[in-house]
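INFO batch 0412 | record 1 of 1 | parsing
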Amino acid sequence: MPIILHITQEQAWSDVQAEGRYETPSLHSQGFIHCSTNEQVLEVANVLFKDQAGLVLLCIDRGKIVPEVRYENCEGGDRLFPHIYGPLNLDAVLDVVPFTADDDGLFQLPPTVRRMFE
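INFO prediction complete | emitting tokens
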């Protein structure tokens, strides 16, 4: 089962539980929800989320996502990132894992997530 990852605020995730689908500001402004592979997520976290608290990592079963998923790079590089082109159906989310930075403000892959890719 291919798994992709998405970083979000714990509160944002909690807020959507009653709605049955997850949307992000990027879905409305860019047309998709940004995700990462396990090889990409730490770089994304350490560049875009450094020193932020209250984050969770959504572990998403790629095969259960209802909207289209495209692997692309909108920045012009060679690395392709998974993008979800529509609201994420909550039943595709396998696990929601607290994602906290260390004392230097940097992230490491939580052990429960790391085991998913072994």
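INFO post-check: The chain has a mean pLDDT of 92.
INFO record closed
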